Amino acid sequence: MAHPFRFATLAGALLLAGCQAVNTTSGGAVGVDRKQYMFSMLSSQEVDQMYAQSYQKTLGEAKSAGVLDTSSADARRVKAIAQRLIPQTAAFRPDATGWNWEVNVVKSDELNANCGPGGKIIFYTGLIDKLKLTDDEIAAVMGHEIAHALREHGREAMSKAYGVQVASQIGAGLVGVMYILDEPSIGLHQRDNERLLGTLTHLRNLGNTVIVVEHDEDAIRLADYVVDIGPGAGVHGGQVVAEGTPDQVMNHPDSLTGKYLSGRKKIAVPAKRTPRDKKKLLKLKGARGNNLQNVNLEIPVGLFTCITGVSGSGKSTLINNTLFPITATALNGATTLEVAPYDSFDGLQHLDKVVDIDQSPIGRTPRSNPATYTGLFTPIRELFSGVPEARSRGYGPGRFSFNVKGGRCEACQGDGVIKVEMHFLPDIYVPCDVCKGKRYNRETLEIRYKGKSIHEVLEMTIEEAREFFDAVPALARKLQTLMDVGLSYIKLGQSATTLSGGEAQRVKLSRELSKRDTGKTLYILDEPTTGLHFADIQQLLDVLHRLRDHGNTVVVIEHNLDVIKTADWLVDLGPEGGSKGGQIIANGTPEQVAEMPQSHTGHFLKPLLERDRA
């Protein structure tokens, strides 16, 4: 347990999630969060439209019913509190300063708040008098909704929402509260992370307990008490390896986290940078989507380039909304992608395809899993259909598919679980009563390959399956790529709905690695280190460098300094976020950017490079 009134950090190769007390995880509320679920299932445009329609409908109904409160003491009180909270948002989303904030108060039997587009909020005041709420308690409720109003539906926005929620808690001035945060540094530049850590320290100094699940080195070093979970991930984890002050964990012989903190293990800076060829460049001119200010971007072909910059500086717009759709339309034949405004693009002759490896789910149903996504499942089914008992029964590969009738359990249609619909909440899944979660009927499960049923094979971890199928080259090669990206602990048949965004991204990366390499591919990754321990980052970098060494062009949007310092080339956007950003303020090697005083990234990168080269 963390000491009372301390800033504590849980670190380790296995990510844990806080779920009790005042839980300021990405959803911002205790338990399952309806908004978080909807954000994950819909595009940002669909979410904006949904909230706009819901807001207008709710406001119209309130006016028609005569419950819109414009002049009562409660209404004046709520609006005054909102005016106190709203200015605190500028630090977390600069473009919100230009919003036309509107706070409407509705009389009802609940205490809640709902957000609409562009800073519009409805606050329900029915329980204020009954519960005798203080201004600080009202502010805490409103702070959660302002955080949702600020969302841009991405990882940067999640951290901005964290910031607003934490700021509202400071404004509330509560004492003796335990706060639990799950990786609040996700999507934050080191400058913004420094501000967040200062805020958390202030919460602790007020007399609260702050527990943070985190991989960020600065957060771990700042903590009063560290609990390190490991020693590995999955079946190799689940133990408290070390606990104590950062210094005590640093000196613990069995702590992998401690070894990286102490420098006994480290992600090394390359001894020599790969020089760029000025004749082989991707040149994008006049990019002006969102806050981009007529940006001219040059990316060296065949190198590993990091796109950096403070939160909201325009990185995603430049790469995900401009560079990717341009190249995907030209090279992959994409027809539905929208391209942000730009003038010209040159350099396509150096590429033959583009691959965008994002953190969206690899599937939406329990039947989607790593085995089906990576192409492992087809040869596995063929192996089972080749067993003598299967041949004598006339079973083909289709018998071992849970997507078609025949061998699957029809009660759950091969899902292994039954979906229970929850009104206004995400659906939940419970094990099938007939097959007990095994997906297949009794006859299919009777067929065994090397003593294992198809269900038992799907329950194997990637590491176990790699050993089991060692004599089958087609399977062993793909399983090895999954291990290379740090996924040895997930199960072959693990439902896609249970994989984190980072895990889904690495499954996608492994599938690309298993394909034939032409050496002319543009790979784009958006914050691939999300949720990764130092050791996992090292594995990821080994893979990215391997892609680069084969002649491919790798472009990564990233805040993690361990990744940034190993890149061949940096493009730093800024100088700030929102309307004060949208410019390329520095580019060059990490050493060159570290010497540029106008670069916030360079400011944090310079001491790291000096320390690592010492």
TrEMBL record:
InterPro entries in UniProt: ABC_transporter-like_ATP-bd (IPR003439), ABC_transporter-like_CS (IPR017871), P-loop_NTPase (IPR027417), Peptidase_M48 (IPR001915), UvrA (IPR004602)
Cited CDD domains: ABC_UvrA_II, M48C_Oma1_like
Pfam family of the protein (one): Peptidase_M48
Compartment(s): Cytoplasm
Main location: cytoplasm
Any one cellular-component term (Gene Ontology): cytoplasm
Alphabetically ordered keywords of this record: ATP-binding, Cytoplasm, DNA damage, DNA excision, DNA repair, DNA-binding, Excision nuclease, Hydrolase, Metal-binding, Metalloprotease, Nucleotide-binding, Protease, Repeat, Signal, Zinc, Zinc-finger
Gene Ontology biological-process annotations: nucleotide-excision repair; proteolysis
MF terms in GO: ATP binding; ATP hydrolysis activity; DNA binding; metalloendopeptidase activity; nuclease activity; zinc ion binding
Signal peptide per UniProt: 1-21
SUPFAM superfamilies documented for this protein: P-loop containing nucleoside triphosphate hydrolases
Domain annotation ABC transporter: ranges: 276-606
Cited PROSITE patterns: ABC_TRANSPORTER_1, ABC_TRANSPORTER_2, PROKAR_LIPOPROTEIN
Cofactor(s) of this protein: Zn(2+)
Family affiliation: Belongs to the ABC transporter superfamily. UvrA family.
PANTHER family noted in UniProt: UVRABC SYSTEM PROTEIN A
Entry protein name: UvrABC system protein A
Organism, as annotated: Pseudomonas aeruginosa
